[in-house]
Design a protein that fits this description.
This protein is of the alpha/beta class and 318 residues long. Helix content is 20%, strand content 27%. The strands form eight sheets. A five-stranded parallel beta sheet has the order 5-2-1-9-21, with helices on one face. The relative contact order is 0.15.
Length: 318
């Protein structure tokens, strides 16, 4: 077993980029350490609030208020003693050789250890027309999703057949179950309004099955129970007018509304460093989450890419 160095031998400046689950978990570990007096921890985030994406669907479905899906990070200082929070602060670039984080205002912070936990961004640029569809992984889409469901219900009541298409643009993507949850909750809302027979709900994926294999049997049963159609191996190549999805094999689906899972990748300031793989994620050591070739740099959460035996490895909670 390796013997850890004494605390006073550890790097003094630790910068954590991203105040999501991974970044806050990392900061909390330092805050709770018995002796962290030799370490200065700074968390940087472009927002001033924390959110859990899994709560958004309950907001557009009317089960909770949208205000209940965010938490004010400026009020959590007592839970992170000794940790500095730079909120509403953009990161412009990273100087990995010089060990500096350049902020949006041009100032720079030096680090000994850098923890990248910025999450991912949706990038629809590889699919022409997808940017006109709703981005399922944006908190800003809650009100639009609510409006979409209301439009579908109103049109169905008027006798018009409706189609809600949930299109997965590429894999991997964060929270693989989310598109299916959205389809199931939409089914519940529409069913409660008595017009489910007028609405076709479809989920497409570019692969045979985007979730772990053991879940397939359960979800297949749910698809049948809820009358949700799952169409595998459907790669979206373009979207016309925000409502017609065209697939690689030449077929298409005309929909009333399209909710897309945009192809995802690391944010621009990470991508610009050259550490990303061709899919846009940061490969890391599975044991340490260290970024190969970058001294003192680690990447955790959705932004990183972990592979075991050539297959993707779960990276939530690593």
């Amino acid at each position: 077993h390796r013997i850890p160095p004494p605390y006073n031998a550890m790097p003094k400046n630790v910068i954590v980029i991203g105040a999501g689950f991974g970044g806050l978990g990392c900061a909390k570990t330092f805050a709770d350490a018995k002796d962290s007096s030799g370490v200065a921890v700074t968390v940087i985030d472009a927002k001033s609030w924390f959110t859990i994406g899994g709560t958004w669907q309950y907001a557009w479905a009317g089960r909770v208020d949208t205000s209940s899906t965010t938490w004010d990070l400026s009020k959590c200082g007592a839970q992170f003693p000794g940790v500095s929070m730079l909120l509403d602060t953009d990161v412009a670039s990273l100087d990995l050789e010089g060990k500096k984080v350049v902020l949006g205002d041009g100032s720079a912070l030096e680090y000994d250890h850098l923890v990248l936990s910025p999450g991912v961004v949706g990038d629809p640029s590889s699919v022409p027309g997808m940017d006109a569809t709703l981005d399922m992984y944006s908190h800003d889409s809650i009100e639009r999703q609510r409006a979409d469901v209301q439009d579908i219900i109103a049109n169905a009541r008027a006798g018009e057949t409706q189609t809600l298409l949930v299109a997965i643009g590429a894999v991997p993507y964060k929270c693989p179950v989310a598109p299916f949850e959205a389809a199931f909750i939409a089914d519940d809302v529409i069913r409660r309004h008595g017009v489910r027979d007028k609405v076709d709900i479809v989920v497409t994926a570019p692969v045979a099955w985007p979730l772990p294999d053991p879940a397939k049997e359960v979800f297949t049963r749910l698809f049948e129970e809820k009358n949700v159609r799952f169409l595998p191996e459907k790669t979206v190549v373009s979207i016309e007018g925000g409502v017609k999805a065209e697939f690689a094999r030449g077929d298409a689906i005309a929909a009333s509304k399209i909710w897309s899972v945009y192809p995802q990748r690391a944010p621009d300031f990470v991508k610009a460093t050259g550490v990303c793989n061709p899919r846009g994620f940061v490969p890391v050591n599975i044991a340490t989450n260290g970024v190969e070739g970058s001294d003192g740099v680690y990447c955790i959460g959705d932004c990183c890419g972990i592979a075991v035996g050539g297959k993707p490895h779960p990276k939530a909670g690593e």
